[in-house]
Amino acid sequence: MGCCKSRNILFFVLVLQLLLVVERLVFDFLGFMWAPIICNFIHIAFVIVGIFGAHQYRSPYVITYSVWNLLWFGINLTIIALYLEIGMITHKDDWLSLKTNHKSWWANNGFGCGSSSSNSTSSSIMSPDGCIVKYEFVESIQCGTECILAFIGFWLGCWFVRTYHEDDDHFDYIGGFDSYSAYHPPTKSSRMQMQPIAS
């Protein structure tokens, strides 16, 4: 019973992670943010591995998903540090677009943003003016949400594996789920009984 409960909660978190990473992937494609795009595709692959592992009760796959969530947590913390300029490296160093001089889609298309320059020769030259929420905060909020889900996914994966192994200890491989049937053969409905041949 505990395994099914943890499995359902894990499925919910997995589907939520999948939806959020696809949403994030779309906006990263619009802004040509190549490093996050690569990481998002890898994350999608590991979420699919987690879905398969939870569906098939395969502990190694769920453990792989859980370990990836720790790495995903670290990647998103790094992106938050880049956008909020915590440390020496910032998003202005252009690491997230792999030195292609592109900015986040949210930089020019955010909530209430207008362009301060009428000459729009390059999207990297335009600076947003009057945004309700700065794009650095929008990207950080997205990464923060991914961090929360990665943390929850890690612990749910561990809980699922632990619960599954506890439920699995009661399974009798010889006779099925009923331990009584392992010691007493089932009664035959046929009238013909098999007898050993005496030599």
From TrEMBL:
* Stated family: Belongs to the NKAIN family.
The scientific name of the source species is Exaiptasia diaphana
Q: Which UniProt keywords apply?
A: Cell membrane, Membrane, Transmembrane, Transmembrane helix
> Where are the membrane-spanning stretches?
34-54, 61-84
Name of the protein described by the UniProt record: Sodium/potassium-transporting ATPase subunit beta-1-interacting protein
Taxonomic lineage of the native organism: Eukaryota, Metazoa, Cnidaria, Anthozoa, Hexacorallia
This protein's membrane topology, according to the annotation, is:
Multi-pass membrane protein
- Signal sequence span per UniProt? none
Q: Name one GO cellular component term.
A: plasma membrane
Where does this one sit in the cell?
A: Cell membrane
Any one GO BP annotation for this protein: regulation of sodium ion transport
Keyword match tRNA processing: no
